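# step 3/5: fold
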Amino acid sequence: MAIPVVVPTLGRAMTEGRLTRWLTADGAWVEKGEAIFLLETEKIECEVEAGASGQLRHLSAEGSVLPPEAVVGCLLEDGEELPSEYRDAAEKARASQMTTAPGSPEEAVIPYQGMRRTIGERLHKGLQDIAQVTITMEADMTEAAELLGRLRAEWRREGVHVTYTDLIVKACAIALSEHRGVNAMLDGDVIRMLPEINIGIAIALDEGLIVPVVHRADEKDLREIGAVVHDLAQRAREGTLTVDNVTGGTFGITNLGMLDVEVFTPIVNPPQAAILGVGRIKEVPAFQGDQVVKRSVTNLSLSFDHRIVDGAPAARFLQRIKRLLERPASLV
């Protein structure tokens, strides 16, 4: 008896998914639990496993966009014929694949699909729909660097690894709790002040960008934030993030400092109100009284939706983050 292979429902907010790639050939035998296709939603790309053992038949072509629970294939018993109700659909996975024109031998072709398409469509829509403004401040990170050195030495024995990103997440969580207008979203004709502070951290992967979320960041101390961020980053690189790990964000952080970028304009991820961009930390000369001393500084760039937040409140919010990082004892 044929067993249908369907698009799984990944979270209550899911309305559709894109079958980006079959991982097993049409007609191949698969075992229960074996990954058979890649599914991309608005939030995440994941492997879908076979619910039973059998001969896999493709009924939907790669690139198909389908609602949850839509049938994309079926599993047949050994020697079983494809049921008539599935036969027409199978002839259509095959026809579309045969008519796809390959790129010329001289050019490299990268399909605009999967995570890359999701990123492009969301950010393009964001720039079209919101009134984005970006402001930038320089923050002195000298004391933060010294604190980070001490904490790394103290916490290493406990297996806790703390980074600049963790300090920034904590600073943002405190600032968001004090400036609730930034932790908001536009919902039709009303601006909603969100009860939870959930901070998304952009992580670059080979196939694109993904933004796992530190949920209730304001309720976590720096150790907890460090552990959560480390776990999310590791799981992002392993491809084991869940839908819950990448949904519910109310504010974003993106850091290009490790790539020597000093200042940039991050794009707000709707429906969030703002995102913080962090540049590289560099050493500069500064006056301390009559003496010239060496200081470590970075640029913080806050992009925000002017429909939700005005310039002065946004500037005060960014100024609060700057001051927390410049006097970081309160972050511990």
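# step 4/5: annotate
The longest helix spans residues 222-238.
# step 5/5: archive (pending)
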